[in-house]
Design brief:
Layout (H helix, E strand, L loop, with lengths): L11 H35 L2 H49 L3 H7 L1 H43 L5 H44 L1 H6 L3 H53 L5 H43 L20 E8 L9 E8 L4 E6 L5 H6 L9 E6 L2 E2 L5 H6 L1 E4 L8 E2 H6 L7 H10 L3 H6 L7 E2 L8 H13 L5 E5 L7 H14 L4 E5 L3 H4 L4 E6 L2 E6 L1 H7 L1 H10 L2 H4 L1
Parallel strand pairs: 3-10, 3-11, 6-9, 9-10
Antiparallel strand pairs: 1-2, 1-4, 4-5, 7-8, 11-12
Helix pairs in contact: 1-2, 1-4, 1-8, 2-4, 4-5, 4-8, 5-7, 5-8, 7-8, 12-14, 17-18
């Protein structure tokens, strides 16, 4: 957890002020019992009303000053801790944004959400307590011991027997709690995962009547977390009563032995009262420390998980020596590319070589699992290849910055993703400074104008979270418009026409030809009708190229392509 404290650097002045106010507060609280003892032993014993009023007024002044210091310390600790939480969340989010898809796969989306929210909140809450208690508790404990010994050294032996017992309870609780807190955070991950799957897959769950199954699944994850939380709370619930029991027995012991010493004339009544207050302060500071040690293990477990995110360096990094693209704009070349997913037994792609030229449409087709989506995810460098090279504009993608590479590409993913906002916001996501005219032109090319005009507020209609208020085909057309508005050098359509009817598909491809005349277009598709007019068709089979050529050429030379075509088109259509 100490590693995370570097994020407190911007708040060093707040922390310095916090320390000053806590020091003043502690000094004031340590001085008050002595003033009270003076009133009891000198003022009341002698019947000196003026002395009582004078010292009592000073006590009131010290108490008010201490209260003000407490308020200011609370404000500064809250300011520093919440600022720390804000900066840490921003840093974790920025780190996650820099991850390649491989790091996302390793940690998991649900776990990343938990670490960015719940885990950081745990650390932030403990930090507030630490900044208050880790300063004031030691000062109160040490100061209380000094003041108690100064009042009566022999009576202080009572404390000598109690303090080690309390310290032992604190250490035992911390050791028992740490494994439980680690397990608890992992189980929160699991609960988040199940909840997320249920919310995103609610249509599938209902369609297959799996509501009861999902309730059982959620119940198991919920019960697992609850059982661990109960164990933790049972452990922590025992600590407070035991600490209070020790405090009360210690007070009884002090009064017992103190009364004997008063009877012997070794100590005055006021000093005994002050001693009891100092003993209470010492033990209460230990109780505060125990409360802190209860919270620290969970925060430590959360801090470890946060550090895992911060210390996981992205595999894909920008090169130190960046090369500027100087070749043909939009030219994409694959030279003997081989790629495997982490842990896979066989490569997803093997020895892939082809060129996609500007002004041409390159289509990729193949069976399920043949590597089509994997191939195009290598162009924007979502993953790094094992062997070979991928060139864009004559430069290896690994020698370009990720930002400059992706600025040349307009990608329409297989799963159309829309964001909360208006239709215009979603299309303009591809180009922030796009004009209204450009937005409408992109929508028109993507064949989206018709359904947008039928929406209540047209281009200003709100898209719900995840695009749940539009159909699959409408999502795809808005995603295509988002890519078109960028006017990139390379267009990549990953099975982006699958939800469109044949008529809309044909109109869209005809409009794309006019709009992308100077760009390279790469289309991944399952339907032969979508790719048969392409200038170049690449047929993939088990991660390898089974054939390259036009529709007619492949019908003659490629058995795999013939099988795909015959499965989709009738003999009349083939003729």
């Amino acid at each position: 957890m100490l590693k995370l404290f570097r994020f407190l650097k911007p708040y060093k002045f707040s922390i310095a002020g916090l320390l000053v106010f806590l020091l003043l507060q502690s000094l004031g609280e340590l001085y008050l019992p002595t003033l009270m003892a003076d009133i009891v032993d000198d003022g009341i014993a002698k019947g000196d009303l003026d002395y009582i009023l004078r010292v009592g007024g000073f006590m009131l002044l010290v108490a008010v000053a201490s209260a003000i210091c407490v308020i200011l310390a609370s404000y500064l600790s809250a300011k520093a801790a919440t600022g720390f939480g804000k900066d840490l969340r921003s840093r974790v989010f920025a780190q996650v944004e820099s991850y390649s898809l491989n790091e996302f796969d390793k940690i998991g989306t649900a776990s990343l959400i938990t670490r960015t929210t719940n885990d950081i909140t745990q650390v932030q809450q403990v930090l507030i307590v630490m900044m208050r208690m880790m300063v004031s508790a030691p000062m109160m404990c040490i100061g209380g011991i000094i003041m108690a010994v100064s009042k009566d050294a022999k009576l202080s032996l009572v404390l000598l027997g109690v303090i080690p017992l309390l310290a032992g309870i604190i250490i035992y609780t911390a050791r028992r709690g740490m494994p439980l807190f680690k397990a608890m955070q992992a189980k929160i991950d699991k609960l988040n995962l199940v909840t997320r799957e249920n919310l995103t897959g609610v249509r599938v769950i209902r369609a297959f009547n799996r509501l009861d199954h999902e309730k059982v699944r959620f119940g198991e994850a919920n019960r697992d977390l609850t059982d661990t939380a109960i164990k933790v709370n049972q452990l922590m619930a025992v600590v407070w009563p035991i600490m209070m029991l020790f405090m009360n027995f210690t007070t009884v012991a002090i009064i017992w032995f103190g009364s004997v010493r008063i009877d012997a004339g070794d100590i005055q009544v006021g000093d005994l009262m002050a001693f009891i207050l100092y003993a209470t302060q010492i033990m209460f500071s230990l109780v505060m420390a125990s409360f802190l040690f209860v919270m620290v293990p969970r925060a430590e477990a959360s801090a470890i998980r946060i550090n895992e995110v911060l210390n996981t360096l992205p595999e894909i990094k920008d090169p130190t020596a960046v090369k500027e693209a100087g070749g043909t704009k939009g030219l994409v070349e694959f030279n003997k590319v081989t790629f495997s997913y982490p842990g896979a037994e066989q490569p997803a792609l093997s020895n892939i070589s082809f060129k996609a030229r500007p002004g041409e449409i390159t289509a990729i087709i193949g069976g399920t699992g043949s590597g089509k989506s994997t191939l195009i995810s290598l162009i924007p460098r979502f993953y790094d290849i094992e062997m070979g090279s991928i060139l864009v504009n004559g430069v290896d993608v690994r020698e370009m910055t990720q930002e400059s590479l992706r600025a040349k590409i307009g990608l329409v993913p297989q799963m159309a993703v829309l964001f909360t906002g208006t239709v215009t916001d979603n299309i303009r996501y591809g180009k922030e400074d796009a004009t209204d005219k450009e937005v409408k032109e992109a929508a028109e090319t993507a064949q989206a104008t018709e359904f947008i005009s039928q929406m209540e507020e047209g281009f200003e209609s709100v898209i719900a979270q995840g695009g749940t208020n539009v159909s699959g085909g409408q999502k795809q057309r808005l995603s295509i418009a988002r890519a078109l508005i960028r006017r990139p050098e390379v267009y990549i359509f990953d099975d982006s026409f699958s939800a469109l009817d044949f008529k809309t598909d044909a109109r869209l491809r005809a409009a794309l030809k006019k709009d992308t005349v100077n760009s390279t277009v790469i289309i991944v598709a399952q339907r032969v009708s979508t790719v048969m007019d392409a200038d170049q068709i690449i047929v993939l089979d088990n991660g390898q190229i089974a054939g390259i050529g036009s529709h007619k050429e492949l019908l003659k030379n490629c058995e795999v392509y013939r099988e795909i075509v015959s499965s989709q088109l009738s003999e009349e259509e083939l003729a």
